[in-house]
Each structure stands twice: as structure tokens, then as C-alpha cells.
């Protein structure tokens, strides 16, 4: 059943039934095959002031992103269990098209295999269905904040061919640009802000994902894995993003 008006708070307070929010708001692409879930989530997002496009299949979602309407989409909410092309493949194809679009995946089970596979496919975050309106909106806001240009403190990185331009928010390796999705870029900026400093998974969840609740270290580990695949010559023997067993991660050579 779609959420009731009283269950959907709007920005700045209220119960979702008051005056519409004024001003430009982000546009979300909701990819969900269950019509009742899709309609309910669309209602929640619109009452929070978001623009919403919906797609019942991955094929329709990709066609929308490739068309004129795709330019307005700023975030995708993607169900993993889709008919035809599943959410994992949709996520991979979106990532092949763009590194910049934040992706929040929806999973009905929260199963470790599903979550890890989805994160490795390129998702930035995940929520388990059924999801409450406040949690969904909070995760969307956090993902959009990560997508905003924001240089972390610290010097530019230049380590064995890897150059991190903190002002321009670009990364190159051996002179070749390395496009990174917002979450991976922020993770790299956070780690490299103080080379040699060890950051725990909990610290990274709070600073990169803005997860002060429902923290999940799988988000960090999956993002580190994707980052290493793009930066390291041999991901299994990382030079840039080091694991400190029992503590967390650090940037720089051992």
C-alpha cells in the first residue's frame, strides 16, 4: 500500500500535505517492477520535492537514460530483482555509460551475496525493502551530497604515477584520466588527505557515506575493491590503498 500522507514528512517539517517545496530539486530515476512499490516510492519522493521518472524494467531505464530525459536524472534508485535484465547488469551498464550518476540499489533480502554483488557492480549504497520514507530520503540526500564537488583538505597526491588534483577533483595515473564515481572519489580524497593515517571503516562510513546510522562495512570494502581495480597495477597487492588488518585502511606505501 502506498504510504499515507501523514507518514511522509517534507523538508523543513510538516507531514507531507502542506505547501509544495519551492525551488529546483534533484531528479530521481526509480527502477522498480512492482507497481505498488513503485507508486508508493514515487509518491514519497514527490512529496519530498523530488522530480521522478520511473521504469518497470532495466531495458526501459537504460533507454530513458540514453534519451533526452536522461540528462535531468541526478540519481538512480535501482531494484535488483527485475524481469529480463536484472539489476546487477543494469548497474554495470549504467556505470559503463557514466561514473557520475549515484546509484542506490534496493534489495528484498539484504543477503550478503546480493549486497556484495550489487556493490561490486558499481552501486554506491543499498537499502533493504521494505524501506521507510525517512530512511530512503536520508540515503538519497547523503548520496547526492557525495556527488557534489567538494575537495577534502590535504595536499595533492602524487605517488608513483598517481596524481590526485584536489582542486579540480580529477585523478590521473601515468597521465591517463581515471574516472571515478562520486563515492569512490570521496573515498580516495578522504584516505589521501593525510597519507599514512589509518582510518577505520566506521570513520569512513561517517565521513564518506554520511552513515551515522545503520552502518555497514560492506559499503567500504566494496568501494575499496572497486577503487583498487582502477588504480592499482596489481589489485591483490595494492600500493596506494593499503589494508591495515584489524584497523582499517590507509593511503600510501607501507
Using only C-alpha atoms, the radius of gyration works out to 19 Å
Task: Give me the count of strands.
Answer: 12
User: Could you give the order of strands across the largest sheet?
Assistant: 2-1-3-4-5
Number of helices: 8
Structural class: alpha/beta
Which stretches are low in confidence, meaning pLDDT under 50 for 5 or more residues running? 1-23
Overall mean pLDDT stands at 83
Quaternary state reads single chain
Tell me about the largest β-sheet: 5 strands, parallel
- Strand residues, percent: 15-25%
Instruction: Give the CA-CA distance, first to last residue.
Output: 54 Å
Anisotropy-based shape: globular
Give the SSE order as H and E letters. Answer: EHEHEHEHEHEEEEHEHHEE
State the share of residues found in helices, binned by percent: 25-40%
Structure description:
The protein has 254 residues and is of the alpha/beta class. The protein contains 8 helices and 12 strands. The strands form 3 sheets. A 5-stranded parallel β-sheet has the order 2-1-3-4-5, with helices on both faces. Strands 6-7-8-9 form a 4-stranded antiparallel β-sheet, covered by helices on one side. Strands 10-12-11 form a 3-stranded antiparallel β-sheet. A hairpin with a 2-residue loop joins strand 6 (157-159) and strand 7. Helix 2 runs parallel beside helix 3 (87-97), helix 4 (112-120) packs parallel to helix 8 (217-231) and helix 6 crosses helix 8 (217-231). The longest helix has 15 residues, at 133-147. The protein is globular. Mean pLDDT is 83; it is low at 1-23.
Amino acid at each position: 500500500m502506498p504510504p499515507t500522507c501523514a507518514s511522509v514528512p517534507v523538508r523543513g517539517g510538516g507531514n507531507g500535505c502542506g505547501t509544495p517545496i519551492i525551488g529546483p530539486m534533484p531528479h530521481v530515476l526509480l527502477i522498480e517492477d512492482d507497481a505498488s512499490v513503485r507508486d508508493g516510492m514515487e509518491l514519497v519522493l514527490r512529496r519530498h520535492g523530488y522530480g521522478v521518472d520511473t521504469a518497470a524494467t532495466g531495458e526501459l531505464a537504460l533507454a530513458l537514460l540514453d534519451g533526452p530525459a536522461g540528462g535531468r536524472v541526478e540519481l538512480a534508485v535501482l531494484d535488483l530483482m527485475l524481469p529480463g535484465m536484472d539489476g546487477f547488469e543494469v548497474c554495470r551498464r549504467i556505470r559503463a555509460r557514466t561514473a557520475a550518476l549515484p546509484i542506490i540499489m534496493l534489495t528484498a533480502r539484504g543477503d550478503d551475496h546480493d549486497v556484495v554483488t550489487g556493490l561490486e557492480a558499481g552501486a554506491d549504497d543499498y537499502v533493504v525493502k521494505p524501506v521507510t520514507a525517512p530512511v530512503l530520503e536520508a540515503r538519497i540526500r547523503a548520496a547526492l551530497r557525495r556527488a557534489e564537488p567538494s575537495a577534502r583538505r590535504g595536499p595533492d597526491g602524487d605517488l608513483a604515477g598517481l596524481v590526485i588534483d584536489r582542486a579540480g577533483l580529477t585523478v590521473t595515473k601515468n597521465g591517463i584520466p581515471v574516472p571515478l564515481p562520486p563515492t569512490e572519489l570521496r573515498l580516495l580524497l578522504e584516505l589521501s588527505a593525510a597519507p599514512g593515517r589509518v582510518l577505520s571503516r566506521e570513520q569512513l562510513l561517517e565521513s564518506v557515506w554520511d552513515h551515522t546510522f545503520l552502518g555497514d562495512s560492506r559499503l567500504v570494502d566494496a568501494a575499496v575493491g572497486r577503487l583498487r581495480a582502477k588504480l592499482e597495477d596489481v589489485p591483490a597487492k595494492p600500493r596506494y590503498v593499503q589494508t591495515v588488518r584489524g584497523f582499517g585502511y590507509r593511503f600510501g606505501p607501507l
